[in-house]
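Hello forum,

I keep getting stuck at the same step: I have a sequence, I want structure tokens, and every attempt I make locally crashes halfway through. Rather than fight my setup again tonight, could one of you with a working pipeline run this one for me? It's a single chain of 223 residues.
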Amino acid sequence: MKVGKLGIFYLLSLLVTQSLLGALNLPKRRGVLAQAQYLLEHWDLSYVYGGGKLGDPRVCDRCNDCLAKERPEKSQRISRCPVCQECSLDCSHFTFEVFRKAGLEATYLTTAMMRELAPDALRRSYHLVDIGARSQRALPGDLLVYPGHVVLLERRLADGRGDVIHVTSGRDLQGPGMGLQRERHVDIDSFRGPLQRILRHDALADELQALTWQGNRSEIRER
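Reply #2:
Ran it on my machine without issues. Output:
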């Protein structure tokens, strides 16, 4: 039976468990997760719709101060606090920034485009592989796309839950500077509405595929 390239990606996602993933030599995937964690731990970022820049930390502080004073609605944050254009992110800009800082080719696209573009367009123009919408296929470093929101999966648990890192306007933490959050043990299938798509950077997909094929060749030689 002939298996297409996307079929191989699906199969690998199902076979690679969380514990096995940690034991594999996947430096590009580790780099993506490390950059997401670094931003989480070192940047006091505010969520601003349309925000797409990591500026000087002092600019971030001015953005946060302005938001605390003006308290604008989400859609009015840049117009009411224009300094936020120099240091703020929304959910899709965060994922773009993580890939870029991890040294991967990245072209920005909106969450709506992540949901709507055909798989060949995503791969050709944006370096993203469509893995489908079954949560069992998701691996750490993948993007989970929901209606109007995208998050980075940090850890997948066996019960269909996982830890995610994302930039959000916040349900519990509304204060300026708290836009970048880690949320633990979320239901992957329904975190922000139904899970609509899992996207994997093509460099991470190719890295996993190459390592798996290399292991298969070694096993054949040993036999």
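The chain is about 45% helix and 20% strand. If your local run keeps crashing, start a new thread with the error log.
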